Amino acid sequence: MKSFDIFDTVLIRKCGSAENLYYLLACEVYKEDESLRDAFYYWRCHAENLAKKIFKREPSLFDIYSVCDKDSFKSINPNKVLLAELRLEKENLVPNQKVCSMMDECDDQIFISDMYLPSSFLAEILKSFGLLNNLHENNRIFISCEYNATKATGTLYDVVRQTLGIKTWTHYGDNIWSDVKLAKKKGLKAILVDSSYSKSERYYLNHISLLPNRKDYDVLISLQRAIRLSFNNNNHTAFAIDCIAPIYIGYVCHILQTARKRGITTLYFLSRDSYILYKIAQQYKKEYPDITLRYLFVSRKSLIYPCIYEGKADEICDLLGLESFKGERVKRIANYLQLDEHAFDNLRFNEIKSDKNVIAFKKALNNYCHTITKKSAKNRCVLLKYFRQEGLLDSGKKALVDVGWLGTSRYLINKILVKEGYEMVETFYLMNFFKVLPPSKGIYNSYLGECDFKSPAVPIVEVLYSASPYRSTLSYEEYNNKIFPIFNNSTKPAKSEIIKSNLIGVLKLLDNIKCFRTDYSEIFPLWSKLAMQCIINPQNIDITALSDLEDQDEIGQTKNLVHKLSFRELIHYIFSKETTSFSSYSVYYTNPRLAPYIVCFYNNYSFLIKKIKQLIKRTIKQ
Asked: Is the pTM of this model over 0.70?
């Protein structure tokens, strides 16, 4: 036979601790009176111990509310508040799928809990999740308040043994003392269930401890834990819940609120990075009926060609977002301009390395000016038809939604609109680089502000967070008076399991957030910033979720950003300065236990070498 603890083992509170549930209850009972809300919250936190002292037994929920301070809380009915607490408990409980899968493997099982809630109430909840369907006659729920015995003292195990007439069994629980040590002391085989907070969740909790609205953050972070545990062993879904959801839910909420304030009536989510943002926004549609949501198939490649009006080298350099052609590959530019890959073979260089190369390349490029502008006008005509079809050329205030970074798509779209006599559109960014294109190219709003282009957050957000089922848009074609995007077959969509996991995790968390009777929009920004800070340090996240993270260039070539390192590669990492921003992630993925020491040694070694070099230079100068 097997026995299971209930709370934090079989069932998880979405709001986290019992104290958080009391907080939600207090917010519901005293919506407008903050002082009484706090007073009631603190009373409820201590009420169980108070009832225990008065009745000299393990108290039930009825006992607890019978000692309610009626003089302090005259406006409430204790019986109605008791029912409200039961309702909140029911609304907040979700099954721990890992434990539920263990329960599926056994027919003979019981539940043991140190709890003030009645067993009939808990049985109803367990049945609703299909966890009592296979119970035999002898299977029962043993609750401390109904037997005046607890697991914490070991006496409840004695009650179970005497009632069922069995000597020993296997007990599962999350508490080291009452579920493991006391169970073993009573002769049981005990197995500890890990339902603790993840590394990311602990990171968030550590950073909100001193905030005045800490309880609201605590509830949100606890909800992440509960929803994560409601999925069984899915690393990508867990990562989406812990790291993607806080950033993207907060970002979309910010977009919709700002759009309403600014009178924006249509939001265009740009393919491909904004796919999941579009899906999140759709979940808010009922709350923002005045805002139309559209998904726009564009890419730098599909926009650059139609933006060419003169066809000269300087214009093309500007459209590509380059200060100069120096350092660029010739074939990359030819590919963007849809020229033959051998168009510049006579230059006899593949990379534009010197000023002399720049002059030669510009001269060669200007020879194709007529060809480029003729093709550009044709492409622009089709693109404008697509814009008109999607309502981008209609009256009304509009805005684009993108992830970041330089603002090239914003510039390209607005250049065409202005040239063709239309108004510029605004743009929302999650983050932007320091050298983002200025507001003269179109007003923009950045949710999290500036980001270092070398930050590991950039590829993580682009590749993993923004996983899309679509290929990159190459151009457009007209068929039966309708414009369709043509996709670049050399690129590939993200892996379907990643897209599915991202959507399931983020949308499940969002649905549960909306179930709480609290507006969390004011605390979303800090939640988002914490999540962004979390991912740039590999020790704060589950690296296995990044193990198949592939960076894809413009022609579809991919490479893994995080991979297992050989012993030789580890040594090279420690003593080499030629490391990428993802090197430390690979170290953590290779050996999580030793990784903190390896990374610490690398950082100190690099610092020491730098100081030695500075000392040598000073000595030589002297």
From this structure: yes
